[in-house]
Structure to design on (96 residues):
């Protein structure tokens, strides 16, 4: 299976670069697994009410992304620490 292309929106890239190196490496490792299409190895959930929105859990961090299977592309839109259940509702507008 061909690898998925990974793209970052400015917000997500800026947050990733501001994280401690160890956290960056954990997130990058899981994103590489995601790009290889090995979804069952990761903690991924579909975001309710979106067509292509998903979240991936990496330790305490959450990575919000759109998965475009026809284009074979992953669009990382946000990286954040989950504090409450409404965190996803607040960010749902980013998943377009």
């Amino acid at each position: 299976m061909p690898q998925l292309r990974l793209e970052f929106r400015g917000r997500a890239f800026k947050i990733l670069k501001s994280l401690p190196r160890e956290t960056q490496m954990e997130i990058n490792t899981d994103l590489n697994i995601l790009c290889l299409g090995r979804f069952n190895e990761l903690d991924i959930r579909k975001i309710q009410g979106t067509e292509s929105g998903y979240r991936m859990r990496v330790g305490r961090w959450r990575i919000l992304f759109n998965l475009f299977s026809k284009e074979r592309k992953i669009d990382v839109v946000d990286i954040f620490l989950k504090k409450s259940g409404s965190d996803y509702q607040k960010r749902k507008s980013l998943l377009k």
